[in-house]
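C-alpha cells in:
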C-alpha cells in the first residue's frame, strides 16, 4: 500500500514536471541588446569594454525606472532605446553606420503587445532619435510603416527633434565604410551594433522596439529587418516580445521574431526553446545574429549565433546584468 502511494506520488511529480516546463532562464522586466557580431575579447579594448558595459547598464536602469514608477512597457522600451541611440557606441541614432553613398539611413520599429499596434520607419536621415518616429507612427497615424521623406515630414509635423545629417558622422564608421568599400559585397563578419529592448510592465503588457543604422556599405534605400514587423521586432501579450539584431535579409526571409512567437503560441514551446532553435536554424541557413526576448512571465532569452552580442537585463529590484561575449 505504502509502495503504491509512493509510486503514485512519484508519477504525480513526473507529470507535474512535464506539464510545467519552466525554462532555466532568469526573469526580468527589461532586456536589451546593442548588436551582435564578430565581437571578441581581443577586438575590444578594456576601456571600450567598460564604456559598453556602462552605457548598457545606464539604459537598463533608465528603462526599469519607468516600470517601477508604474509606467508602460512601451515608454520603457522607447526611453531605453533613446539612451542607446544617443551613444556613438552603437549602430543606431548617433552611431549609425554609413551607406555606400556615405549617408546615414536609419530604421526603427516599436510594437505594443497589448493592442497589437505597431509603428515603423525607414530611411530616416535627420531625426535625432529614430525610435521616436516609430512611436509617433504608432500613436498618431493610421499607418504602420512610413519611409523616407514622408516619414521625415511626418516626424517634423509631430515636433520631433531634427538635426543636421552631420550629427550622425563618426570617424570610426566612416573609416569602416572606406575599408569595406573596396568590395561591393556586404561585409560578412561585421559587428552589427543595432539596439533593441523588450519590456514587461506591471499590467502584464509586453512591448518591443528596435533601432538601427542598418549595415555598413548598404545601398541607399535598402531597408533591413528592424522596421519589418515580425522580422526584427514583434510583441504579443501572453506570448512574447522579441527584438533582433543581425544580417537583416536573413531575418526578413525567415520572419524570425514572429517565428519565435508562433512556436510559443501554437507549439507550446518555452521562449527558451523557441528562440534558441530559431537562432540555431538561422545559422544553418547562413544568417548571423541574435535576439532578445521576454515571455509573458518575464523569462529572459538572449540567444545569438555570432562570437558576441552586447546584451543585458534587469529585474524590478536587481542590479543590471550585462554581457558581451559568447563565453560570458
Ligand atoms: N539587422 C540590422 C539590419 O540588417 C543590422 C544589425 O542588426 O546590426 O539592418
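Residues out:
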Amino acid at each position: 500500500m505504502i509502495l503504491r502511494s509512493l509510486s503514485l506520488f512519484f508519477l504525480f511529480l513526473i507529470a507535474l514536471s512535464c506539464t510545467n516546463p519552466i525554462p532555466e532562464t532568469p526573469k526580468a522586466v527589461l532586456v536589451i541588446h546593442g548588436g551582435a557580431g564578430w565581437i571578441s575579447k581581443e577586438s575590444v579594448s578594456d576601456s571600450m569594454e567598460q564604456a559598453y558595459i556602462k552605457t548598457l547598464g545606464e539604459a537598463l536602469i533608465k528603462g526599469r525606472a519607468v516600470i517601477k514608477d508604474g509606467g508602460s512597457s512601451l515608454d520603457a522600451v522607447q526611453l531605453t532605446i533613446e539612451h542607446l541611440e544617443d551613444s556613438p557606441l552603437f549602430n543606431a541614432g548617433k552611431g549609425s553606420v554609413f551607406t555606400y553613398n556615405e549617408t546615414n539611413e536609419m530604421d526603427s520599429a516599436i510594437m505594443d503587445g497589448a493592442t497589437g499596434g505597431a509603428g515603423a520607419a525607414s530611411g530616416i536621415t535627420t531625426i535625432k532619435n529614430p525610435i521616436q518616429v516609430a512611436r509617433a507612427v504608432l500613436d498618431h497615424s493610421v499607418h504602420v510603416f512610413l519611409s523616407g521623406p514622408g516619414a521625415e515630414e511626418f516626424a517634423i509635423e509631430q515636433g520631433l527633434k531634427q538635426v543636421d545629417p552631420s550629427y550622425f558622422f563618426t570617424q570610426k564608421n566612416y573609416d569602416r565604410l572606406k575599408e569595406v568599400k573596396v568590395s561591393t559585397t556586404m561585409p560578412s563578419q561585421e559587428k552589427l551594433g543595432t539596439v533593441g529592448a523588450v519590456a514587461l510592465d506591471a499590467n502584464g503588457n509586453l512591448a518591443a522596439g528596435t533601432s538601427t543604422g542598418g549595415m555598413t556599405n548598404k545601398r541607399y534605400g535598402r531597408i533591413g529587418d528592424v522596421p519589418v514587423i515580425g522580422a526584427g521586432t514583434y510583441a504579443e501579450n501572453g506570448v512574447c516580445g522579441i527584438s533582433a539584431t543581425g544580417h537583416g535579409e536573413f531575418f526578413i526571409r525567415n520572419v524570425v521574431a514572429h517565428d519565435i512567437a508562433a512556436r510559443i503560441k501554437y507549439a507550446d514551446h518555452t521562449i527558451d526553446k523557441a528562440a534558441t532553435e530559431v537562432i540555431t536554424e538561422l545559422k544553418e541557413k547562413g544568417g548571423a545574429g541574435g535576439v532578445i526576448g521576454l515571455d509573458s512571465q518575464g523569462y529572459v532569452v538572449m540567444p545569438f549565433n555570432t562570437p558576441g552580442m552586447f546584451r543585458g537585463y534587469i529585474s524590478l529590484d536587481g542590479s543590471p546584468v550585462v554581457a558581451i561575449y559568447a563565453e560570458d
